[in-house]
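mind reviewing this fold:
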Amino acid sequence: MKVQTFSFTAGGWSAEPDGALDSERTLVVLFGASNLIDRPAPVQRVIDAFPRSRIMGCSSSGEIHGTRILDDSLAVAVAKFDRVALRLAAAQISADGDSFSAGKEIARQLNAKELRAVLVLSDGLKVNGSELVRGVNSLLPETVTVTGGLAGDGDRFARTWVIAERRLTPGYVAAVGFYGDAVRVGHGSKGGWDAFGVERLVTRSRGNVLYELDGKPALQLYKEYLGERASGLPATGLLFPLTLRSARDDDKRLVRTILAVDEANQSMTFAGDIPQGYYAQLMHANFDRLIQGAGEAAQSIRSAAGGSAPLSIAISCVGRRLVLGERAEEETEATLEVLPPDTRQIGFYSYGEISPYASGHCDLHNQTMTLTTLSEA
């Protein structure tokens, strides 16, 4: 397996796009600014350089190249496999109700006896991430590792794009399947946030829209916690996500991030489901634990890399970046400090991360650092 990574910024290319690795067994992954949909020339240059390769990518709330975090840029990884077959899939998402069927359609297009792993990238605004992964899980067995993320748009929440059929397109989910026993995929997903305040019962919700907690308007309660920061919603909501569990004695917790607020209905829309009957609690950041969490995500997959992890795809939540500020690169450094020394890394800041909680079927996560490593036996 041969891997090349490079980036494009206002200063130009860190390395010229070179089609020397182009082949039907080559995966090209791109993460870039949301405004590249208006000026796609850099993306198109990469696409044109790799006419036979499988190309996928999405918009970002910050691009990761190595340990660096960039804005208004393009981060690219090219991975040429020797024995791993690759197949692309895509499905349109026109409304939240399409998310389950889109995930199921992706799984249908990719499902085969030799399928070992899937990397999914989705529109970050029109999708219900929980329904998307539920659709994927409905057809794929637990033995297929599914990871990925939801496209970002900084703290603007205005538009996102995904590469589908070699074009930058809003409202799509795209995926690549990896086939054959030669592929080695590692995955890890960790947070580092601390829960605080009262744990409340979700008394009214529908899908990813939360209406009431403990019988009270959800947005009203949330604003009481945020105080003066409430005027900056939904962006300031990234600093205070919700943690969910099905029962007070359930150790499995999932985190959800706000995408939008509805003042008229006093409701909040999240990146994934907020099931009625679950328990919800606010979370806040602990700088050192966020960085530690990134390192733990890498540690959890180091053994799966078999001593070698040529490519690491890092997908971290935009909320983590907003909290960490100038310290954000410490989490990208923490991952590479743990992974094998030959690892090349690209990634992006997202509106949601997709990964198994520990093993088995995938879940939608928010506010995590999620890593996927790709190597070949």
The chain has a mean pLDDT of 93. Helices lie at 41-49, 99-110, 129-139, 218-226, 287-302, 318-324, 329-338. The first helix runs from residue 41 to 49. The first strand starts at residue 2 and ends at 9.
